[in-house]
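Researcher: I'm preparing a figure for a lab meeting and need a structural model of a single chain. I don't have an experimental structure, so a prediction will have to do for now. The sequence is pasted below. Please return the structure as tokens so I can convert it later.
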Amino acid sequence: MAVMTRRAFAVVLLALLGACGPTAGAGGCASAQFLVASPGGLQCVDQRGRVVARLVGLPALAAPALATRQLTTGRIFFALTAVVDPKTGFGSDLMSVAPDGSDLRLVLAHESDNVFYDAPSLDKSGSFLYFHRAAKISRNGAYLGTDSTIERLDLASGHRTVVVHDAADPAISPDGKLLVYVRLADGRGDSLWAVDPAGTNARNLLRGHGFAQIQTPRFAPNDDRIAFSAAGHVAPTSAGLPHLAHLGIPSELYVVRADGTGLRSIATSADDVIPGWSPDGASIAFISTGTLFVADIASGSTRTVAAMQFPNGDVVWLR
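Model: Understood. Here is the structure written out token by token.
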């Protein structure tokens, strides 16, 4: 596995090329429906896909990604890749900011070169933050691989615990009783797994379903449904017959229950996407090929909100 994921590399590259997006004033997302984390910053976006403000000012060339919203407080947590730090080198940190754009905080700083923190996920109480850590392994200057773990941070005490090895993209259930993640095999996300919050009782939620690539599981806000992006999958249709679904790109957006039942494809995308659930759990927003889409889960229909507006990014549905 490369030290930095493909999506992390993309946002950094776009930022360095100056793909900053529309200029907007700082001041929160009071009138916005979505928050988009992209090379343009943390952008407040209305229901028509227009950028109306930036949530907070960030350093030049800094690229926020993989934002999430703490349900009880509304506080936004996100990964931030910035310019190379003279002491700790290149990497990404975890940050948080209040919903009105105030109180920007450093939650967890990368400690050395080629260490990346991303995919923050908070439990319902807001006490524990689960996240992914990827760190380069080398000896005598030779790259040997990547140490990829999911950890839990006690936000009050600062105590950290490794929960799962060889894993990425953690997501904690709304009731805090289940942690799902992507298991890595030779650096590739091959299936969706679940453990108890302490890292015990590991099980494969998609046993019998093969994927070429899988990423970014996200729990619905109020139940046990999980949305994720995947490609190269053989899934049963409603008639029980195999349905060959995209042996490579394009990808599909799937929904499955936390017990592994009810797997269903709800949208097709041109590449990997990061699902953002609506507060009522009826729809999922995502960005693909620069376009913001919303997929209706019940009907399986997808509508375009804003075409070619965002070079890259992921969506938090605010209201």
